[in-house]
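Task 17 of the worksheet. Students: predict the tertiary structure of the chain below and write it out as C-alpha cells. Keep your answer in the requested format; marks are given for formatting as well as content.
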Amino acid sequence: MTTSIIVTGASAGLGEITAGHLAAAGHHVILACRSAERGLAAADRIRARTPGAGLEVLELDLASLDSVRTAAGKLLADTSRPPLHGLVCNAGVQVVNGVRKSTDGHELTFATNHLGHFLLIRLLADHIAAPGRIVLVSSEVHQGPLKSMGFPAPHWQHPRALADPAQTELGGSAKAGRVRYATSKLANLFLTYELAPRLAGRGITVNAFDPGLMPETGLDRDWPAWTQRIYHTTAPLLVRTLPGTRTVARSGGDLAWLATSPDVAEVTGTYFSGRRRRASSRQSHDTTLAAELWEVSEELVAEH
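Model answer:
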C-alpha cells in the first residue's frame, strides 16, 4: 500500500536523502521546505535518482506559526494523495551569530527546532492514519560534552524563557548559540516522551533519532565561511576516524528505516542512534519538565 510521509527540511542534507530513500521505497513523500524553490530543486534531484518518484513540495517555514498553520491547512484540504502515515520532523537551525528572532518574536532556535514542529504535530496528529509514525530528529548533543565530542551541554530554563529572546541567560556568543541548539535537542526528547503515551492508543508511534555528527550537512551554514571550508574539507577524514560521525547517506537510510521498517513497528517512546536503541540523558526523562514544556508550548502557539 502506498502511503504519504512528510519530511520537514527536505530541501538538502539529511532531509533530502531521507526523502529519497522513502520515495525509492514507493512512498509518496511530501517535502516540507521553507523555500519552495529549493524544495522543487531537491525533488528534481530525487527524481533523477528515482524516476517516477511520488513527490510534492509543501512550503513550510517552521519559524512562523502562521506558515505552519497555512501549510497544514493546504495539506489537509487536498485529499487526492495516499493516506498520511508518517511525519519526520527533521528541519533544524543552529545560530552562532547572536540572538535571533522568529517571525513571531520567539528565539529562533527554539522556535524552529521545537515550537514549529510542536504545532505541526498538533495540527496533523488527528489526520495520521494507523499504523502511523512520528519521528523527531534529536541529537547526542543533548547529553553534554562527554558524550558529544565536546559540544556544550543544554541549559534548560522555563519554556517561556527559552522562547523569549529578552529572557536569555546565555548572551549572543557562538558558544551560547550551540548551547541553545543542544537545549532544543533536549526539547525534542521531552516532546517525544510526552507525546508517545498520548498517541499510543491510536496506533501512532513516536520516536527520536540521533543522526550522529554529519560534517556534510548544511547545519553549519551560520558559521564563519573559513570555519565552514575547514569543516567540509576535513569531512571525509572525520567520518573515517571519529566515533559517532556518519555520512549523510548512512544517516538518511537509518532515518528512513525508523520511519517505515516493520522491525520497529511496535516501538514507541524510544531514542535511536542510527538503528540502535540508545539511552538518552537522565534529564530527558524528567516527566515534570516534559509536561511543563507541553503545556507552555500549547500556550505559546495559541497566543499567535
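Marker's comment: The beta strands are 4-8, 28-33, 55-59, 84-89, 132-137, 204-210, 270-273, 276-277. The two ends are 38 Å apart (CA to CA).
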